[in-house]
Amino acid sequence: MADGVLDRIARSAGVPELPDVLAERIPATDLTPLLLHAYRRRSARRSPADLMAQREHDATVAPAEVDARDLNALDRLAFDAADQFQALELAPVCPLGTNAVLGDIHQNNVLATIRNSEVVADPTAVQALECARRRRLGESHVRLCASHRVLRLQPFDVPGFTRHFRIFALASAGRAAPSYGFEVESVREHLAVYLRLFAALRAHGYRCDDIPVEVSDSRVAWAVLAQAGADLAQIRSRVRAHAPSSADKLLDEHGVRPLIVRDPSPDIARIGGRQLAGPARLLAAIYEHAFPPLADEFPTVEFVFDLTRAEGLDYYSGPDAQDRRDRHGRCATGHRRRRRHEVDPKTAV
User: Which has the closest alpha carbon to 347: 66, 72, 62, 68?
Assistant: First the structure.
């Protein structure tokens, strides 16, 4: 929130230091009963007409337009495709700061509660906490999946996008192995789940044809874009994952040619730099050990590397797997399939 708005609120309340008092000086154990008291008094003054008025103009409290039976059918297919992963029913809230600390989602875009928790905005972040807890308890290899309705508060101007939407997410955790063995195997496992899901959806009448899989590494993308002369500050400020054309438009403005290749090693070697040695080995391992068995199982799918992926460069870290059509998803430590744009059966997924 802009400092000017906070200053105006503090002046109006007659307490110049009000933002600092609430954010820093009052312990969390004392802030909760204070806010509970405030909202209890406010809710007592509300009428049924107030509730209806909020329902009419507040998109966060409106139900999804898609039929719940259709989502339930999609969930069944997704969980069947991920039968090697333990299915979780996540809590609707998570510890305060989870989405910002683990998911790098701005706190303004998350609905925080007054009890030191917040509504889940990214199931992968919540699953990461559960993976860490289980690893601490001694589990050697953790595989989790969940389908969860999440809430994001940033405004969307893309038709069909809504503030709350359903995400099917995978998360894996385990001990590191030589030559990125754990990461590569996780990429293979996660991609296989989604490709099996797409095959099942196609069999049920959904349009899921010509599916390419693109793997990116944010560190490589930064280096390629910088070498091509792209304005990295503009990329950070203008490219948004929920606006799929924003990246292509910006790269075109800077004359950056999309670099989508089957074997990433020659292009990464040409870029050079010690900082890319690790990413180069990881992508090479994915190319050599994850893609071949996937290509054998899914012979109609194209497997490539996108070395100029501009979306999510401040959000992802390391290898990211995505479907070129909607440019969403993550593999290795977590992989999610966003259904922010939820659709009816017999239409595109």
Answer: 66
Q: The tokens of 6 are what? A: 């906070």
SS3 category, 181: helix
Domain-by-domain residue ranges, the chain? 3-44
Taking phi first (over 0 means left), then psi (-120 to 50 degrees means alpha), and beta for anything else, what does residue 97 get?
A: left
| Cα separation of the two ends of the chain | 36
Q: How far is CA 302 from CA 132, 177, 223, in A?
A: 33, 27, 25
206-234: pLDDT as tens digits: 988 888 999 999 889 888 888 877 777 77
Dist CA 21 CA 41 (whole Å)? 21
Q: In 3D, which of 78, 58, 237 has the Cα closest to residue 151?
A: 58
Distance CA 275, CA 265 (A): 14
Q: What is the pLDDT of residue 1?
A: 52
Write the DSSP symbol of residue 348: B
- 122 in Cβ contact with 105 (< 8 Å): yes
Neighbouring CB atoms inside 10 A of 205's CB total 10
